[in-house]
Design goal:
This protein is an alpha/beta fold and 285 residues long. It contains 10 helices and 8 strands.
């Protein structure tokens, strides 16, 4: 089960029980790579069977600066290890999002309660979702997302929190998801027109849907506040067994002066520590 499917089912229920590969060994401090120019993080759900304190300790030793996609019950833990919670889980779900006005009142009310809590815990970004199409046109979905998200911007701006809409593939993992192309989500960002709304560009998902990763990032970087990684196909390690050149992608993003987070969201097929260490080294540029 993918993290997205679990969110769609569980909403903001803790990710501690998510399917993942345990970290099987500690990495000696001598092996810690330099930080490089990218601020790298790791998604919690990919190591869901690892206790959060163990994950934070390991993240610190391999050169990461944070843990991604945490629920409220774990927001404060990274701070104990000199790390950040680099992205908070959404208060909503993937299929039921901002593209339908019928969802707006609840999403806005829940968001207005959730955003101040996140800010108080030091969480500066929260993922949000478009919702599924269910026959809705692209133009209508964009307009509805803009209308709903604009209602949350005063609260987000007041508390210094950025809501990041994630683009997901509708071909393999999230059938019927509306924000399945970068251009669609960029139109939402243009319409919302707030520093507290940006995009989460998931490299895996957008490679599945549209490819042309570096050119797409180059054209749309002002709207992107966060990246996710994973190997294509399969969503596993970002190594030579998959089709993307993550070293080249990392080099390009770093060359732009990007200061956001570059978070690893792959499911390891082998030793969890070794896979994470290798990913960090690949993207330390």
């Amino acid at each position: 089960m993918h993290r997205r499917d679990m969110l769609g089912t569980l909403g903001t229920v803790a990710m501690a029980g998510a399917v993942g590969v345990p970290l099987s060994a500690a990495v000696p401090s001598a092996a810690v790579p330099s930080a490089g120019r990218l601020r790298q993080s790791v998604a919690r759900w990919c190591y869901g069977s690892t206790p959060i304190h163990d994950l934070c300790a390991t993240a610190k030793t391999v050169g990461l600066m944070g843990i991604d996609l945490l629920g409220p019950e774990e927001w404060s833990v990274p701070l104990q290890y000199g790390l950040e919670c680099t992205m908070g889980n959404s208060w909503g779900t993937i299929p039921v999002g901002f593209n339908r006005p019928a969802n707006h009142d609840k999403l806005v009310a829940d968001g207005e309660a959730y955003i101040p809590r996140a800010a108080a815990a030091g969480v500066k970004k929260i993922v949000v979702f478009s919702g599924n199409k269910a026959g809705m046109s692209d133009g209508e979905g964009i307009a509805n997302c803009i209308a709903g998200l604009k209602r949350l911007m005063p609260t987000a701006e007041q508390h210094g929190v950025v809501l990041c809409m994630e683009m997901l593939n509708s071909k393999v993992d999230h059938k019927d998801y509306h924000a399945d192309h970068t251009a669609w989500a960029v139109e939402v960002a243009k319409g919302v027109n707030s520093p507290s709304f940006r995009l989460l560009y998931d490299i895996y998902h957008m490679q599945v849907m549209e490819g042309d990763v570096i050119a797409t990032i180059k054209a749309n970087l002002p709207y992107i506040a966060h990246f996710h990684t994973a190997g294509v196909p399969g969503r596993n390690e970002i190594d030579g067994a998959q089709e993307l050149n993550y070293r080249g992608i990392a080099e390009y993003i770093a060359s732009t002066g990007y200061t956001g987070v570059f978070a690893h969201e792959f499911i390891p097929k082998r030793n969890g520590v070794a896979a994470l260490k290798e990913a960090v080294a690949t993207c330390t540029v």
